[in-house]
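User: My collaborator sent over this chain with a note saying "see what the structure looks like." That's all I know about it. Can you take a look?
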Amino acid sequence: MIWIGTSWKMTKTLAEARAFVDGLVARRNAVDGVRAFVLPPHTAIAAVRERLPADVGVIVGAQNAHWAAGGAYTGEVSMRMVADAGATMVEIGHSERRDHFGETDDDVARKVSAAVAAGLTPLLCVGEPEEVRAVGGELEWVAGQVRLGLSRLAPRDRHRVVVAYEPVWAIGDAGREPRPGEIAPVMALLSAGCVPGERIEVAAVLYGGSVNLRNAESLLDVPGTDGLFVGRAAWRVEDFVELIRIGSGAGQSEGKGRRDVGAAW
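Assistant: Without extra context I'll predict from the sequence alone. Here is the result:
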């Protein structure tokens, strides 16, 4: 099944979040056939979860959480706390967290392990900056981020991780829209494996970065792509529903979005 999800980043008040959910509930039939998810800011997680009826199959997640169970970490929230607010997924390792807040690969690994321990699905974000791609180092860079991000997990738990490939050069206002051929080698790597001889089952491999209504279908056609992780192009409920429709259509293709035996990292 195809995954279609969005992070709201630092947008949406409680009123705006509730309005989005109400619009989604009014179009509940559109959600059938995909694994849809939304990642509100921490302030809106509980409100979004409470507003979504149980029969509307949308996963609610968090955009970040700390690896510690609790303690003197002013301004942070724990995995247990976001789970208590209603989250069942947590985004980890986004390039903005790595860049603006200095998160290291070991920080990411600690968070992935803590998320699994709290019963959450980690959404592990990986992706190379422009200068790495310019010299042809994207495959090694992304493989390294995946290895390190999973390094604190027991092998039996790695199948619970969703991986999102988000090249840094394709993210944000200044992001450059990718051509399918540019991301295809990385998606193939992530689907086929990074570490020879070691097989690790993962829940899905998603693509994110300058995804929009025009290119969503072609990006989903890239082999090894189980879904899309979308930013501002999904912040209007009408657009999110349209992306879900596109994903549902792609999921009806033979074998698309099904990961029967997992990927070998």
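A starting point for your reply to your collaborator: Residues 258-265 have pLDDT under 50 and may be disordered.
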